[in-house]
Backbone:
């Protein structure tokens, strides 16, 4: 059973304290959000080591740029903007996107032997992750933000600096592209 945080400070309040010099509060923010960021990066890069490095880079940048935090929007939006910049800088340095490695298993998929009745679902999930990895960066990013990180279209629009309608269209296009790649990989006809 999950316990509620009793009278725990909000992310915004903690970050404002970090901005004012209480650097210990950054540890609380790290504990609250490192898994969220890790899963975001893992779904985008397919690489565990790179994802861990990027999480560390994000929190280093939060510390470095703490004075720029204004608290006008949700802390997570500010954090994800930093995350997007960190990932962009990583890709620029590398000049090549890391493809999902054959030996990499997404974190939420168990590495235990698979019961026969779950094999089909496991294979579909693995195929879906392969299809996601083959999408264009911008398609993969809006899908990860909307479907896996549960951001609302309005929040994604604010994060990406565009209109909410644009995000709806991009998500719709990305889902269509994902479906096309999924069926191509599976060898099935598009329904």
Residues:
């Amino acid at each position: 059973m999950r316990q509620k945080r009793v009278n725990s400070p909000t992310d915004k309040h903690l970050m404002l304290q970090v901005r004012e010099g209480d650097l210990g509060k950054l540890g609380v923010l790290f504990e609250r959000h490192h898994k969220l960021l890790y899963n975001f990066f893992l779904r985008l890069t397919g690489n565990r080591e790179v994802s861990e490095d990027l999480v560390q880079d994000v929190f280093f940048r939060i510390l470095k740029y703490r004075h720029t935090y204004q608290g006008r929007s949700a802390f997570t939006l500010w954090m994800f903007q930093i995350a997007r910049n960190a990932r962009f800088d990583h890709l620029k340095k590398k000049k090549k996107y890391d493809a999902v490695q054959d030996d990499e298993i997404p974190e939420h998929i168990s590495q235990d032997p698979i019961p026969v009745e779950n094999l089909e679902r496991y294979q579909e999930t693995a195929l879906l992750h392969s299809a996601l990895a083959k999408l264009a960066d911008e398609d993969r990013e809006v899908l990860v933000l909307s479907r896996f990180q549960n951001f609302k279209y309005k929040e994604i629009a604010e994060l990406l600096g565009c209109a909410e309608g644009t995000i709806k269209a991009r998500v719709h296009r990305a889902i269509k592209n994902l479906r096309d790649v999924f069926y191509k990989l599976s060898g099935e006809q598009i329904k």
Notes: The two ends are 41 Å apart (CA to CA). The chain has two domains: 9-99, 112-191. Residues 96-111 have pLDDT under 50 and may be disordered. Residues 138 and 179 are 16 Å apart (CA to CA).
